[in-house]
UniProtKB/TrEMBL annotation:
Coiled-coil residue spans: none
Keywords assigned: Hydrolase, Nuclease, Nucleotide-binding, Phosphoprotein, Toxin-antitoxin system
Family, similarity comment: Belongs to the HepT RNase toxin family.
InterPro entries given in the database record: HepT-like, HepT-like_sf, HepT_RNase_toxin
A Pfam family assignment: HepT-like
Lineage, broadest ranks: Bacteria, Bacillati, Cyanobacteriota, Cyanophyceae, Thermostichales
Family annotation (Gene3D superfamilies): bsu32300-like (1.20.120.580)
Protein name from the UniProt record: DUF86 domain-containing protein
Keyword Iron set for record: no
Length: 112
C-alpha cells in the first residue's frame, strides 16, 4: 500500500498543475491556447496512467472515485484522440479534476 501513497501524491500534483494552468482562463481562451491544451492533455494522460497503477485493493476501498472513468479518459486521449473534443477536456478540467483533488486530499500522506 506504500506505493499507493506515492501514486496519490502524483495524482494530487497533476490535478494541482491542471488547475494552476487553467486558473484564470475562460473556456474560449482555452479553446485558442494550443500550448495549454497540449499541457492539459499530457497531464490528464499521465494522471490516468497513475490511476491504473493504484492497487486494486485501494481502488476497491475508495469506490466513490470513478477510477475506471479516469483511466478510460487516458485511453481515449491515447487511442481515440480524434474523438476527444476540447469541450470534453474543459469539462473534465473544471468539474472532474477539482472533485478528484477534493476527494484524495484527505487520503494524502501527512508531511510529518
Amino acid at each position: 500500500m506504500h506505493q499507493d501513497q506515492s501514486y496519490l501524491l502524483d495524482i494530487a500534483k497533476f490535478c494541482q498543475a491542471i488547475l494552476r494552468l487553467t486558473a484564470n482562463m475562460t473556456e474560449a481562451e482555452f479553446q485558442h491556447d494550443e500550448r495549454t491544451q497540449f499541457a492539459i492533455l499530457y497531464e490528464i494522460t499521465v494522471l490516468g496512467e497513475v490511476v491504473k497503477r493504484l492497487s486494486t485493493e485501494f481502488r476497491i476501498q475508495h469506490p466513490t472515485i470513478e477510477w475506471r472513468r479516469i483511466a478510460g479518459m487516458r485511453d481515449r486521449l491515447v487511442h481515440d484522440y480524434n474523438e476527444v473534443t476540447l469541450d470534453l477536456v474543459w469539462e473534465v478540467v473544471k468539474t472532474n479534476i477539482p472533485e478528484l483533488l477534493e476527494y484524495i486530499t484527505p487520503l494524502l500522506p501527512s508531511k510529518d
